[in-house]
Amino acid sequence: MRTGFTPEQEAFRREVAEWLDDQLSGPFASIRNLASMSAMMPERREWERALGKGGWSAIGWPEEHGGRGASIAEQVIFAEEYARAGAPGRIGHIGVTLAGPTLIHFGTEEQKRRFLPAILSGEELWAQGYSEPNAGSDLANIRTKARLEDGPNGLEWVIEGQKIWTSLAQYAEWIFVLCRTEEGSQGPKGLSFLLVPLDQPGVTLRPIRQMTGDAEFNETFFDGARTAAANVVGQPGEGWKVAMGLLSHERGASSLAIQMTFRNELQKIIAAANANGAARDPLIRQRIATAHAGLKLMRFNALRTLSKGDNEMLSRESFIHKIYWGTWHKKLGELAMDVVGAPGLIAEGDAYAFGELPQIYLYTRSETIHGGTNQIQRNIIAERGLGLPREPRG
Amino acid sequence: MRTGFTPEQEAFRREVAEWLDDQLSGPFASIRNLASMSAMMPERREWERALGKGGWSAIGWPEEHGGRGASIAEQVIFAEEYARAGAPGRIGHIGVTLAGPTLIHFGTEEQKRRFLPAILSGEELWAQGYSEPNAGSDLANIRTKARLEDGPNGLEWVIEGQKIWTSLAQYAEWIFVLCRTEEGSQGPKGLSFLLVPLDQPGVTLRPIRQMTGDAEFNETFFDGARTAAANVVGQPGEGWKVAMGLLSHERGASSLAIQMTFRNELQKIIAAANANGAARDPLIRQRIATAHAGLKLMRFNALRTLSKGDNEMLSRESFIHKIYWGTWHKKLGELAMDVVGAPGLIAEGDAYAFGELPQIYLYTRSETIHGGTNQIQRNIIAERGLGLPREPRG
Amino acid sequence: MQFTFSEDETLLQQSVAGFCTTHGSSASTRKVMETEAGYDSALWRAVMGEMGLGGIALPARHGGAEMGHVGLAIAMMEMGRVLLPSPYFSSVGMAAQAILLGGTDAQRDALLPSIATGECIAALAWRGAGRGHEPDVRLDDALRLNGVAGFVPFGHVADLLVVAARRESGEIVLVAVRANTPGVTIERHVSLDLTRPLATVRFAGVVLSQDDILGSGEDAAAALARTLDLARIALAAEQAGGAEAVLDMTVAYTKDRVQFGRPIGSFQALKHRMADMMVEVETAKTGAYYAACIVDEGSDELEEAAAIAASYCGEAFMGCSGNAIQLHGGIGFTWEHDAHLYFKRARADAMLLGDAYSQRERIAGMIGLEKVA
Amino acid sequence: MQFTFSEDETLLQQSVAGFCTTHGSSASTRKVMETEAGYDSALWRAVMGEMGLGGIALPARHGGAEMGHVGLAIAMMEMGRVLLPSPYFSSVGMAAQAILLGGTDAQRDALLPSIATGECIAALAWRGAGRGHEPDVRLDDALRLNGVAGFVPFGHVADLLVVAARRESGEIVLVAVRANTPGVTIERHVSLDLTRPLATVRFAGVVLSQDDILGSGEDAAAALARTLDLARIALAAEQAGGAEAVLDMTVAYTKDRVQFGRPIGSFQALKHRMADMMVEVETAKTGAYYAACIVDEGSDELEEAAAIAASYCGEAFMGCSGNAIQLHGGIGFTWEHDAHLYFKRARADAMLLGDAYSQRERIAGMIGLEKVA
C-alpha cells in the first residue's frame, strides 16, 4: 500500500494545475476563490463552458460519452488541484456527478445522445428533485405524482406535487424528479425517475431562505408540469432503483474536492488565530490540531475507499464519509467562531452577511442534515456496515 | 428560594457532626475513611449497631417505627455530615433505604414488628434480589419461580432460580427476592416479593469478580430455598408494584451522601495534580474545574428535587439524578487516571489492586450500567419526563 | 433549605410567563427584530411599568421591588424562553447593577429610578471592539473620554452609557455619560443574534464633569467585576430559559412529525438526544437558581457560583439549540423556523461576557489548582 | 496511489490473522497472563521463527523481511485484535528500531539478527518512573549508569536493554546493556494491562564499555525521537486492531442478546453508538496505515503522521473499548468477560508514549500556530 502517486500521475497533476492557473489568472480571474454559491452566475456559466471546451468537465466519464475515462487516481488529482487552484464551486455538478452518470448507467441511447453533450459542454444545468416536505429522511414516502396523458405534443407525463431542497433550480434548465406514477402504490414501489424541463408554466420556484440569510435552495412546485413520455429513466415504476444508484454516486470522489475547500478554511482559521491571539489559547490549539488531524484522516479515508475501486464500494469504510465530513465540518464551524470571538457576532455590512469564518459556523448546521441526516447515516452504517437488525416500522 | 439552612438545622448539623466525630475518632477510628466496600467487615457490623444504638441508623423513618421522622433538610444534613466525617459506606443500606421503607409502606403489622427493629439495630443485614442473567435492563423478564408447599414447618414458599448482582449477600441475613409465583405469567404480572433467609441449604452464593479485581457482587442460586408463607410483601402476584415502589426509594436522598464521597475524591485529584504537576496542564485544569462545577450542580439538582418534597417527585428534574451522577463519576475516573498518569498503570503491591485514583477509573465503568443503564435512564427521562412515545416492542 | 420557589416567586414567574406568552409570539418577535430600534416601545413600557420588572432586583429606595436576583433570574428565564427583544438585560441586568455597585448614593438616587421605570434606557460599555475583554476607552486627566467600546447590546437605543475606561495611570474608572453628549457616536450593527442587536460606541474627546465619575481604582474594578458576575447570573437564567424552550419545541415537533410510519419522537436515537438535553436544561436551571440565591444570601461564593452558572448554562444553551436544529431536520435550518433565532442567541450570549474556558480557568484558581509547581 | 493492501500485504495479513485466531484465544491469553513471564515462549518462537515477524520491518542484511512499517502495522493490528501477550511490540517495535536508528553498522550487525529471530528479547527503557517523559538515568564520565527507568513493557523478560540516558553535559545518550549486567535490577509489576506487564528497571553503578554506547548528542536524541514516533505508529495499528475487535465483539453480542423482546442490537441508541464506533475504527485503521506508508515512503511528514495516528488511534481505542463495556451491560464489567482486557490495554497504550494532548500540541506547532504573538 502506498499514498504517493506515480510520475505519470504527477505529470497529469501538473497539466491540470497549469490549465487551471491559466484560466483563473486570465479570463476567469474574477471568480477565483469565490466563496458564495450564488454570486457571479453569468461568469460561472461561462466557466462551465470553458471546462467543457477544455475537456475537463467530467474527466471520469467514459471516453465514448465524452469524458476522459480518467482513473480514480486522476480524478483524485483533478479534484485536489481544482480546489487548490481556488476554482469556483461547480454549478454544473448535479449534471456532471448525478444526472450524467445515471443516464450513462440507466439511460437509453437516445437519452444519452440528447442529454450528455449539453451536460459536458455546460449548456444545460441540472437540479435534483428528491425530497418533499413529508419525504425527508423517509425518502420513499414520496407523494409527487405523474401520469401519462395525450397532449398537443404527443404522449406526455403530467406532474403534480412539490419538491424541496432543489438546489440551483433557479439557474438550471432541467430537473430530475422522482415521483409516483402508479396510483395507490406505497414506499419505494411505483416510482419513476423523470427528466423535466424547468422553464415551463407548470413549474414554480420559491426560494427557501436559510439561517445563513442566503437562499441556496428552493421549493419547486409542479402544477401540471409536463415532459415527454420518453423522458423517463429506466422502466416506469422502477425509479427507486435508478435513484438509489444515483445516490451512491453522490457519495463518491466528490468528497475529495470538498476537502480542499476545508483545507483552505482551516488555513484561514489558523491565520486568524495567529493574528488575534487565539492561537495562544491552549484549548484552541488543541481543537485546531484536532481539526487538522481529522482533515488528513478524512483524505486518507477517502483514498482508502477509492483505492478499492468500484467493486468494493460496500466495504465498511465506504459508509462513513458523509457523517465524517458533515460532523467534522460542523465542528470546524464552531472552532471558526470561537477563534474569531465576539467580532464574529457582527455583520460586515448592512445585510445579514457575516465574514467567511462565522459563515462557516452558520452554514455547517445544515450539513449534518441535508443529503441524509447523521441519524440516517448511522442507521445505514449500523445496518449495512455492521449488519445490525433493522428498526421495527411503526 | 434559598440554599441555606435555618439555625435549628445548623444546630442539628453540629449535633450530627459531633456524634460522628466522637465515634470515628474513638471506637471506630479504624474504619474512618475506608474506601473499600468489602474490608473490615466485623468492625462495620459493629458500626451499624452503634448507629442503631445512637438513633442514627434511619433518621428518615417515622418515629412510630423507630426513626426520627427527620425532615428532608435534616436527612440532607445527616447524609452530608456522614460523608464529610469519613464514615464508612453502610453495609446496612439495603435494609435501611430499601427493605425497611418497603415494609413500612407495604408490609403487614406482623412483618414490621418482625423485621424493622433488627434493621434499625444493625442485627440483620439485607441483600436485594432483582436482576437475573436474562432480566437485566428488562427487569420484568424474571424467571426465578416460587410455589407454596406444605413442609415440615408449615406452608412455605419454595424457590428455584438465580439472581445476579446481589451485593453484600455474603454478609447479609436476608434477601428480598422478586420471583414468579403464577405459572405461565409474563412480564410484570404474576410476580411476588418474598423475604428469604440466606443461611439455608437451598441458597448458594458465587462471587462475581469485577474488572477492578474485587468481588463486590454475587450470583445467588436458589435451589429449593424456603421461606415461610407469611414472608410475602403485598399480595402474591403483586410483587411488581412493591418492587417499583422500592426502586423509587433507591433514587432518593442517598445520592447526597455519595456526593460527599465524590467531593473527597475530587480533593484527592486536585492534591495529586498539584503534587505531580498535572495542574499546570491547561486541559487538566479545565477538566477539574468542570468536575467541580458539575459536582456543585449535582448537589443543587438534588436539593431542588428534595425541596419539593415527596409529592412532586415526578417533576422533570427528579429523573435526572442517576444518569447525571453515573456519567459525572465516570468522567471523574478518566480524569483521575489522566492526572495520575503512567504511574497509575502499576499496582501498589502484588495483588491486582491499584491506588485510589486509578481504582475510581476502573470502578466507575459499572456505574452507568448497574441500577439501570444510562440507556434505560434515557428511556425513562424521554418517556416519563418528556412524554415522548414508547419504543415499539419487538 | 427551601431550594424551590416561594409563593411570591411562583406568582412572579406565572405573571411574567403569562406576559411573555401573550406578547412574545414568534410573529411579533420577528416583526420587532426587523425594525431599526429592535424592540417594541409599548411592550417595553409594559414590561417596566405594568409588570414592574425594571426594579425587580433594586432596593425600594431606588424604585425597586426587592425581589432580589432570584426575581431577576425568574424574569430573565421567562424572557429567554420567548427571546423577548428588549433592552432589559442591557439596562436592568448590566448597567443598573454597575451604577448600584459602583456609584455614590447621590448617583444612584439620580440615575436608578428612571432606569427602573424604563424611561431611561441604560447600557454598559465595558470592553473593546476586538476579541479580548479589556476596556479600550481612556479617560485623560482633563476628563476627556476617547476610544471604542464594542458589543454593547441595544447600545443604539441607550440614553445613558455606563462606561468602563482606564485612566492614564492604568486604573479602572467607571463613568456615566448621556448618549447624546457631543463626541459620542453609536453604530448599530446587523448582528448575528437578530433579537439583541449590538452596537459599537465611539468616544472622541467627550468632555465629562467630575459628577459623571461613578468611581475609580480598586473599588471601581471590583464593582465592574461584580457587575459582570451578576450579569453572568442573569444571563445564565436567560440561557436556561432558552434551552428549555428549544427542548419543548423539539419534543412537540418530534411527537408530531411522522417518518417511516412513526412519530420521529419514538425513535430511540432522538429520544435519547432529547433526554440528554433535558438533563442539561434542568441542570442549567439549577445553576441559574443556585447562583441567584447565592447573591441574595450574600454568600462569599458569588464568584464561584457565577463562573459555574455562566460556563454551564452557556454551553447547555448552545448545545440544546444546536440539537434542536438537528432534530428538526431540514426545516430546522430555514429562516422561517425559530430554531435559528435561539441558536444565534445562544452563541451571542456565550460570547458576550467571556467564554466558558475563561470561566473555568477562574474556577481552577478558586479550587486551589496551582499554575506553577 | 494505491492505498490498499498489495498482494503480499494481503497474504501477510491473512497469515498473521490466521495465526492469531488459532493461538490467541481468550482462554490461552488468560492462562498466559497469569504466569510470571506473561508470555508463552513456544508461541513466541512461532511468531518470530515460523511466522518470521521479528524482522518484518528490518533490512535483509539484519535478518529482516523488508516488509516495512506497513508490514509491522499489519502484524501489530492482528496481534492487537486478540491482545496476543508477547514482548513483540517491546522488542521489535521499540528496541530494535532504536538500535537500527541509533547504532553503528557493527552494533546493528551484532544485535539485530538475534532480536529478529526472537532469541534475544530487547526492551527500550527511555523514561523515568513518574508522570513525565524525560529519561531519569544518568551516564557519568566514567561510563557508569545510575537511575531508574519506568514503564518498560515486558522489561522483566528482556535480555537486552536499550537505555536512553543523559550524560553529565545533559546530552542524550543511547546505550545497549545486557539485562544480566551487575547493577541492573528489574522489577515486574502487577500492571493494569494484564496482557502487557510493565517493569521498572534500576541501574546502580552499572559499568559500561565504550562499545555499549549506540550514540550521543543530537544524533541520539533524533534517533530516540524517531524511534518513539515509529513506536507510536506501530502502537496505532495495535490500537486500531483492538478497537475493531471490541466493535465486532459488541456487534455480535448485541445481535444475540434479547431484552424487551428484541435483540438489543436493534435498538437505535445502541445501533448508533456502534455506528459511531465504526467510524472511529475505520478512521483509526486509516490513520495507522497512512502513517506506516509515510514511513516506508521516506516522506518528511513522518512526525506529523505519527502524531496524528497516535492521538487519533489512542482515543478511538479507549472510546470503543469503553463503549464495549457499556453496551455489554452487567457482564461487560466482569472479570470473566474480555471487554475489560481491551479497555485496560487501551488505557495503557494511550499512556505509554505520551498522551494525545502532547501529540496534538506537537501538531499545533507543525501547522504554524504561534505560541506568542
Structure, described:
- The complex is a heterotetramer, with two copies of chain A (about 400 residues) and two copies of chain C (about 375 residues).
- With about 400 residues, chain A is an alpha+beta fold.
- Chain A folds into three domains: about 5-90, Acyl-CoA dehydrogenase/oxidase, N-terminal domain (Butyryl-Coa Dehydrogenase, subunit A, domain 1); about 125-240, Butyryl-CoA Dehydrogenase, subunit A, domain 2, CATH 2.40.110; about 250-385, Butyryl-CoA Dehydrogenase, subunit A, domain 3, CATH 1.20.140.10.
- Chain A has eleven helices and eight strands.
- In chain A, the strands form two sheets. Chain A has a four-stranded mixed β-sheet with strand order 1-4-5-8. In chain A, strands 2-3-7-6 form a four-stranded antiparallel β-sheet, with no helix packed on it.
- In chain A, β2 and β3 (about 155-165) form a beta hairpin.
- The model of chain A has no long low-confidence stretch (mean pLDDT about 90).
- Chain C has about 375 residues and is of the alpha+beta class.
- Chain C folds into three domains: about 5-85 and about 105-120, Butyryl-Coa Dehydrogenase, subunit A, domain 1 (Orthogonal Bundle); about 125-215, Butyryl-CoA Dehydrogenase, subunit A, domain 2 (Beta Barrel), CATH 2.40.110.10; about 220-365, Up-down Bundle (Butyryl-CoA Dehydrogenase, subunit A, domain 3), CATH 1.20.140.
- In chain C, about 55% of the residues lie in helices and about 15% in strands.
- Chain C is built from eleven helices and ten strands.
- In chain C, the strands form two sheets. In chain C, strands 1, 2, 3, 4, 5, 6, 7 and 8 form an eight-stranded mixed β-sheet that branches. In chain C, strands 9-10 form a two-stranded antiparallel ribbon.
- The longest helix of chain C has about 40 residues, at about 215-255.
- Chain C starts with 6 loop residues before the first helix and ends in a 7-residue tail after the last helix.
- Chains B and C meet through α3, α7, α8 and α11 of B and α7, β10, α8, α9 and α11 of C.
